[in-house]
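Notes for week 9. Today we move from apo structures to complexes. The key idea is that a small molecule is not decoration. When we ask for a structure prediction with magnesium ion present, the ligand SMILES becomes part of the input, just like the chain. The input block below holds both the sequence and the ligand string. Read it once before you look at the output, and try to guess where the molecule might sit.
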Amino acid sequence: MATSSVLEVSKLSKTYPVRKGQPVKAVDNISFQVKRGEIFGLLGPNGAGKTTTVKMICSLIKPDSGEIKIDGISAWKQRNKALTKISAVLEGNRNIYWRLTVKENLEFFAALKGINPKNIKGKIDYYIELFDLQDKMNETARKLSRGMQQKLAIAVAMIAQSEVVLLDEPTLGLDVKASYEVRDLLKKLAGEDGRTIVLTTHDMNVVQDTCERAIIINHGRIIAQDRVDRLIRLFQVKSYKFVIADKVSQAQKNQLRLVPHLTLHEEERETIIDLNLEDSRVLYQVIKILSQENSPIESIDRQEINFEKVFMEIINGSEPS
Ligand SMILES: Nc1ncnc2c1ncn2[C@@H]1O[C@H](COP(=O)(O)OP(=O)(O)O)[C@@H](O)[C@H]1O
Ligand SMILES: [Mg+2]
């Protein structure tokens, strides 16, 4: 099948039976496609269903319904074949051996994945350099910093040379510097190495820094899905507050009422206008209406609505009623 998607998830659902209380619908009819060579984000708060989705993609848990295809191979129906196409780092980087050195970990997992021994050395040297682990090559994994351990875990996932690499919360628990190192690394892997990376995170800055496209999920459902630059535009709505030291005329009010996302309220000696806008031309339109009658603009305050706030607004808006 000629397709540019290397991962196709369609109508995936999973409910956990719970002994006491209600069953948990962790993933609810999720569909998305990931293109070869891209970094794709699953963004959502804790409990959104990200880890459950990742575990289904790597055949650790069986979906109730829906289908997953990795490079055209069905994840459950052709499980073993599908597993050769994917590697994963789940939360808590369990895919490295603490007693082995960095180099030994890479050698061990490369051998385990059946990489031709003739090619192993070149590959290991390549990843050690790409991941900037030269100085720690002979250090045991348990002695590494958390950031280094995470880098090693990702390197181990890479050495398998599988088509798709799944990273569940790759920056969780890392300090700021290590988090940025990991983000840079992911960009290098997609860029230089042509790997397809699917990552989950609850941190929108990670998505903003690394992903081309993302879905935002909450309560197991997709609530937004787009290119990250377009998702960011959602987050870039600006809000302005005008204080006018007088009443405005009825004619002005009539004009202002036509401006989208504008609210006006009058106080005893002031008029306050709140304006949300994506397009700054609207701002000039409002200023023009006010200046027609020389309304005394006392202040215009601009509040940049941050990513986090809009993210929370999108999520709260999707709360099941
Ligand atoms: N093994 C399990 N048994 C029962 N409920 C679970 C299990 N694993 C996860 N859940 C529940 O499923 C929902 C989604 O969890 P999870 O996929 O881990 O979300 P995320 O990774 O986005 O934090 C949560 O409500 C969580 O409590
Ligand atoms: Mg999780």
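The chain has eleven helices and 14 strands.
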